[in-house]
């Protein structure tokens, strides 16, 4: 019984894992094993780290039923801060990374504060802050590529721990911590309660304003982590950083089983969905298809996942209603 | 007393304040740098852009009227332009027929979006966001597949130049000619503003849309077919987005995948500045045009001063956030006043 319900509750994660394994094996066999070579495996895993973390940055805002359109712009500004600190002001690497991380966290906190103060949808607030931050990013980076910082940073990005890229390990570790936060701490559960039913949460003594603020701040902090990973894995920083983050930040959590209405998180689902999307990207490169086919596929999959999850939710609601009518 | 009351009601009218601000800023920028008053290079393109962006603002306004958002306005515009461009390129249709085909595609896309929202009961902004992603890939894919490296439909139908470059100056009635600064592109925008304004202020459909937006349950209980109205609102939104996309394609002179990629922020700026409530139930059709004009004057005015792109972005973002907070404060005052009345 518990065994059965374990699998029923984890259908999305389970099927995604199977899709990931099957897809990976299919790509390995059609590429005559090239994908298993050291270099391509390394590339696959390294560029998986950023989608995982920005997927989670979006997830924490989705779980309160809002969205953060500014993830890309926040990441862009944060990496720009780090790069200019190191290149122009000769700040040491750890300090620069910390300043950039705190900057991203502060941007998230500002988003949260604005949402709470104006009582408007997070979407429209982050649309405004996104526009402002894009301006700030351009002002910091202009049209240059900033790469005049110590090479120990890119070297750090190339490090391995037992065969895994260090930055992927950082991403996975972040996801484990986040998962613990939502499942083990009171604060995490209060945030989820706000997302699930704001009125019920308020009546049980949860401060919804605080939950909204925490979710947006957390989103900013996760963007900060993504920014650190980005600057460590790329040879230089320019104004295009963050420009393509939006689609992947939404698609990973949505495919991973996070309800758009709020109230749920799926950390493992988000991670594995980011892996599946990465596979689609690899497949595109392998069969030399046009890049637009990836966004088309991902968009259609996201749209059908949303419809499917809603249909499943309503079926559950109907079943529960049926159960109530029956005598116990 | 009566005069004081009139002044008070005029000042509290957002459209009046907005127009005053627009005119003041216009004069301010002109005085700072007389290049701003250049009819051919500044004012004419400014009004032409305002025409296109007002229509995209109206597209957003239709979705806002029922309390929804349409994040796919830009991409719907792109698909409509794609359809019209393909019709001109491969079917060699006339300008008007191609326009109608593009509009039909936009309206169908909007109706499909509305239908998905109604059937799945998923939040409108999620559905339109996913729609945006799907269409983004679709549009790029079609352009790359059909046109190869150019990624554009470049066939210009007869009459396109006329809409692009001429002004009302060529039309004279009894010796009085139209002003040189009014582009022909203003005509479709005026028609759109008039029709949408008429629908929302004078027709039953408009009232039903607004009551759906202000209180869904009350609307349902009063016998309004709310599901059908949701689809209608998104259909109108898609249709207007399509019109804006084709207008931009005419202005640019070619149909490309980039059309509509810059539409999202302006589509909200116009209606929100004009006084349309994000929560639904209240629209400002003429205000959308004035709001759009205001943002363009700020943009153009700053760029004539030689201020770069980055400051423009910062300024526009601040304008949006300020306008939103003002709306919130206004709502608070209205609530207090209403409480006093009852």
TrEMBL record, chain A:
Protein name stated in the entry: Unannotated protein
Entry GO MF terms: transmembrane transporter activity
InterPro entries: ABC_transp_permease
TM stretches of this protein: 46-71, 91-117, 123-141, 161-182, 213-234, 254-280, 292-311
Main location: membrane
UniProt cross-references to Pfam families, sorted A to Z: BPD_transp_2
Entry keyword annotation includes Transport: yes
Location of this chain's protein in the cell: Cell membrane
GO cellular component: plasma membrane
Keyword Nucleotidyltransferase: no
Keywords recorded for this protein, A-Z: Cell inner membrane, Cell membrane, Membrane, Transmembrane, Transmembrane helix, Transport
CDD domains: TM_PBP1_transp_AraH_like (cd06579)
Membrane topology annotation: Multi-pass membrane protein
Organism annotation: freshwater metagenome
UniProtKB/TrEMBL annotation, chain B:
InterPro entries, sorted: ABC_transp_permease
One GO MF term attached to the UniProt entry: transmembrane transporter activity
Subcellular location: Cell membrane
Regions that span the bilayer: 16-36, 42-66, 97-118, 125-144, 181-200, 238-265, 277-298, 310-329
UniProt topology in membrane: Multi-pass membrane protein
Main localisation: membrane
Pfam families: BPD_transp_2
Keywords of the record: Cell inner membrane, Cell membrane, Membrane, Transmembrane, Transmembrane helix, Transport
One GO CC term, this protein: plasma membrane
Name of the molecule in the record: Unannotated protein
Organism: freshwater metagenome
């Amino acid at each position: 019984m518990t065994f059965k319900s374990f699998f029923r509750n984890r259908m999305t994660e389970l099927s995604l894992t199977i899709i990931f394994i099957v897809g990976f094996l299919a790509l390995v066999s059609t590429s005559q094993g090239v994908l298993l070579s050291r270099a391509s495996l390394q590339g696959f895993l390294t560029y998986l780290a950023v989608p995982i973390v920005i997927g989670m940055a979006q997830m924490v805002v989705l779980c309160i039923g809002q969205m953060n359109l500014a993830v890309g712009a926040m990441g862009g500004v944060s990496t720009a801060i780090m790069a200019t600190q190191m290149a122009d002001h000769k700040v040491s690497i750890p300090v620069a990374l910390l300043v950039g991380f705190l900057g991203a966290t502060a941007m998230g906190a500002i988003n949260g504060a604005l949402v709470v103060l104006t009582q408007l949808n997070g979407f429209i607030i982050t649309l405004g802050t996104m526009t402002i931050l894009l301006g700030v990013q351009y002002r910091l980076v202009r049209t240059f590529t900033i790469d005049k910082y110590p090479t120990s940073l890119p070297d750090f990005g190339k490090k391995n721990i037992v065969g895994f890229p260090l930055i992927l390990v950082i991403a996975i570790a972040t996801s484990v911590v986040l998962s613990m936060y939502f499942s083990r701490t009171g604060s995490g559960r209060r945030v989820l309660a706000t997302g699930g039913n704001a009125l019920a949460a308020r009546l049980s003594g949860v401060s919804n304003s605080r939950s909204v603020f925490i979710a947006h701040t957390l989103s900013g902090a996760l963007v900060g982590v993504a920014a650190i990973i980005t600057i460590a894995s790329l040879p230089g920083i320019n104004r295009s950083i963050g420009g393509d983050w939006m689609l992947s930040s939404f698609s990973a959590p949505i495919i991973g089983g996070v309800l758009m209405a709020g109230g749920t998180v799926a950390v493992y689902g988000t991670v594995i969905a980011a892996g599946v999307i990465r596979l689609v990207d690899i497949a595109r490169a392998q069969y030399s298809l046009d890049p637009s086919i990836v966004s088309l596929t991902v968009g259609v999959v996201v749209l059908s996942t949303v419809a499917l999850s809603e249909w499943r939710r309503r079926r559950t609601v109907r079943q529960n209603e049926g159960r109530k009518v029956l005598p116990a | 007393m009566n005069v004081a009351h009139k002044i008070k009601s005029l000042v509290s009218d957002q459209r009046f304040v907005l127009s005053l601000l627009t005119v003041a800023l216009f004069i301010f920028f002109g005085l700072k740098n007389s290049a701003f008053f250049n009819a051919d290079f500044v004012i004419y393109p400014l009004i032409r852009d305002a025409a296109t962006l007002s229509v995209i603002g109206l597209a957003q306004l239709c979705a806002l009227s029922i309390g929804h958002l349409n994040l796919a306005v830009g991409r719907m515009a792109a698909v409509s332009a794609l359809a019209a461009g393909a019709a001109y390129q491969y079917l060699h249709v006339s300008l008007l027929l191609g326009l109608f085909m593009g509009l039909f595609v936009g309206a169908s896309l909007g109706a499909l979006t509305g239908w998905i929202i109604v059937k799945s009961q998923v939040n409108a902004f999620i559905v339109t966001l996913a729609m945006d992603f799907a269409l983004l890939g679709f549009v790029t894919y079609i352009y790359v597949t059909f046109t190869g490296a150019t990624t554009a439909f470049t066939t210009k139908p007869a009459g396109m130049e006329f809409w692009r470059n001429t002004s009302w100056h060529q039309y004279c009635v009894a010796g009085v000619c139209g002003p040189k600064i009014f582009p022909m592109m203003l005509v479709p925008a005026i028609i759109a503003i008039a029709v949408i304004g008429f629908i929302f202020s004078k027709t039953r459909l408009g009232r039903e849309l607004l009551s759906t937006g202000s209180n869904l349950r009350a609307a349902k209980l009063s016998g309004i077919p709310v599901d059908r109205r949701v689809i209608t609102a998104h259909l109108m939104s898609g249709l207007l987005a399509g019109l804006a996309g084709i207008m931009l394609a005419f202005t640019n002179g070619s149909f490309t995948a980039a059309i509509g990629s810059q539409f999202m922020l302006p589509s909200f700026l116009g209606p929100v500045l004009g006084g349309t409530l994000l929560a639904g139930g209240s629209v400002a059709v003429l205000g959308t045009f004035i709001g759009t004009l205001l943002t363009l004057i700020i943009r153009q005015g700053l760029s004539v001063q030689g201020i770069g792109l980055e400051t423009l972005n910062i300024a526009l973002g601040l304008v949006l956030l300020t306008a939103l907070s003002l709306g919130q404060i206004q709502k608070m005052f209205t609530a207090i006043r209403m409480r006093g009345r009852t």
